[in-house]
Amino acid sequence: MKIIQVQKEHLDLAAILFDAYRQYYGQKADLVAAKRFLSERLLLNESVIFLALEDDKPLGFTQLYPTFSSVSMERQWVLNDLFVDEKARNKGVGKAILETAQNFTRQLGHKGLLLETTPENIKAQKLYENIGWKREENHYFYWKS
After folding, report:
1. Nearest in space to 52 (alpha carbons), one of 83, 90, 81, 19
2. Could you tell me if 54 and 60 are in contact, meaning their C-beta atoms sit under 8 angstroms apart?
3. How far is CA 131 from CA 102, 107, 117, 135, in A?
């Protein structure tokens, strides 16, 4: 398995997983829109995407969005999307992708990564905690559309 930072030439492979990820969260399949969305993020330098491949088959991906911490006055990243194809789960793919994302922010000298997950996503929480992520206990998140 290798993990690459997605460039324009990898969009088709990344879009397949991105579309599956969206379907996992209840959205309708739309591979054309998925590819367009990812293409726009890359073209506008709005995200960084890492893709796990084995024999040129996509296994999993993560998408990071840059942001800032005003309090520490440092750049940080939001790990917004993480998905591993069902056939590739429990094989270390998610861990490898997360470690790649961590190394990316560390090499840039940035503050770190933030992610959120649902309370029922116990398997993901175990993975995060097993590789050193800490659950934020003293912050609440609010949403308004």
Report:
1. 83
2. no
3. 10, 18, 16, 12
* Structural domain boundaries in the chain: 2-130
User: What is the C-alpha to C-alpha distance for residues 64 and 82, in angstroms, rounded to an integer?
Assistant: 9
CA–CA separation, 99 vs 93, rounded Å?
10
Given a contact cutoff of 8 angstroms between Cβ atoms, the answer to whether 53 and 2 are in contact is yes
Q: How far is CA 91 from CA 23, 79, 85, 96, 117, in A?
A: 22, 21, 11, 10, 21
| Model confidence pLDDT, tens digit, residues 91-108 | 999 999 999 999 999 999
* Helices 122-130 and 93-108, axial angle in degrees (round to 10): 50
Which amino acid belongs to residue 85? Answer: D
Indicate the CATH number for domain 2-130: 3.40.630.30
Q: What span, in angstroms and rounded, lies between the C-alpha atoms of 145 and 79?
A: 21
**pTM for this structure?**
0.93
Q: How far is CA 126 from the centre of its chain?
A: 17
Per-residue pLDDT, 118: 87
Q: Residue 18's closest CA among 49, 56, 54, 40?
A: 49
